[in-house]
Specification:
The complex is a heterodimer of chains A (179) and B (126).
Chain A lengths: L5 E3 L5 E8 L3 H9 L1 H7 L6 E7 L6 E7 L5 E11 L3 E8 L5 E12 L8 H6 L9 H7 L2 H6 E10 L11 H4 L5
Antiparallel strand pairs in A: 1-2, 2-8, 3-4, 4-5, 5-6, 6-7, 7-8
Chain B lengths: L1 H11 L2 H10 L6 H5 L6 H13 L3 E3 L8 E3 L1 H53 L1
Antiparallel strand pairs in B: 1-2
Helix pairs in contact in B: 1-5
Classes of the chains: A alpha+beta (179), B mainly alpha (126).
Chain lengths: 179, 126
């Protein structure tokens, strides 16, 4: 079953999205920050990442270059302001636009209860279903059964400058001729 | 499309204007009626209405005295489409990410298996 992406636009100048991944956090972080892995998923069926660079540390920068099916290309770039397993903050710029948005990504590990009850590995570490686990618990567990039941819920907040309109970076997506 | 969207979004970037939109969603209203819930003068509200009208978010009636304001749906539908594109982009990306994560999980399981096998071998030899 696909995990659902929840997009919330209740807050002014902010788009908030949340999604659960059926994998421990360290793998989600790996997939989201290693350029060769980013190229495999970012853009999905809508765009291809032709170039990716990512220096995941405070002050480090990133750049994703996208190619659309119509041959148009655009990129996002920014600098990391905060980096921890729980929270990553970076600014985001579309091409050379002066406006930039702030992207705050937060993450929480969660254990899922299956239909039978808790996985055996959980009983040994005595954690209740739904409790947020510190990163090292999952990493050091070394159990396949354990990993299966650990999910990473991530939230992103895209904050746009006020009162200026959001940057124009979604426009190429809006004008996708394949629609 | 892009320029119109910019206009709509900048018109919506103000909380008073969003409140006016929310009020007009319930039905048309005069400037006086719209100003009532705000601690704002009618000319201040009129200024906001001009911005909304310029963005095509509202229209004004012909009645010279009352000039009731009416919500226009088209620009809001564009904003909706904008958010929908955003959602589709990330939804599609994350579905691909799920596949990458499956591969990484497989890789880690293989690694763990190999590590256990190596450990067992070492146990036998020592």
């Amino acid at each position: 079953m696909k995990n659902k992406l929840i997009v919330n636009t209740d807050a002014p100048n902010e788009i908030h999205m949340t999604r659960t991944f059926d994998a421990p956090r360290h793998l989600v972080i790996e997939a989201m920050t290693k350029p060769e892995l980013i190229k495999r998923w970012l853009g999905g069926k809508r765009a291809t990442v032709t170039h990716a660079e990512c220096d995941l540390r405070v002050g480090g920068s990133y750049k994703w270059v996208f190619l659309l099916p119509d041959g148009n290309s655009f990129y996002f770039s920014g600098t990391f302001r905060e980096v921890s397993p729980e929270r990553v903050v970076h600014n985001e710029r579309f091409n050379e636009e002066p406006d930039e948005s702030l992207v705050t990504s937060t993450s929480s590990m969660r254990i899922l209860r299956n239909s039978i009850g808790l996985a055996p590995a959980f009983r040994t570490v005595r954690v209740a279903a739904g409790k947020i686990l510190p990163e090292h618990t999952a990493v050091n567990s070394g159990s396949d059964a354990f990993e299966k039941y650990v999910v990473n819920e991530r939230s992103w907040a895209f904050t746009f400058p006020t009162p200026a309109p959001p940057p124009t970076w979604v426009v190429p997506l809006l004008e996708n001729p394949n629609e | 499309m892009a320029a119109t969207l910019d206009l709509t979004l900048s018109a919506l970037a103000d909380p008073t204007r969003r409140a006016i939109i929310a009020r007009l969603a319930k039905g048309e209203a005069s400037v006086m009626e719209l100003a009532a819930p705000f601690a704002m003068s009618q000319p201040a509200i009129s200024k906001h209405l001009k911005v909304l009208e310029h963005a095509g978010l509202i229209s004004r009636g012909r009645d010279a005295q009352r000039r009731p304001c009416r919500l226009e749906g088209a620009p809001l539908r564009d904003v909706n489409a904008w958010v929908e594109k955003f959602r589709e982009f990330w939804e599609s990306s994350f579905e691909s990410l799920d596949d990458v994560l499956d591969d990484l999980k497989k890789r880690d399981r293989k690694r763990a298996k190999r590590a256990r096998a190596t450990k067992a071998m070492k146990g036998k030899t020592s």
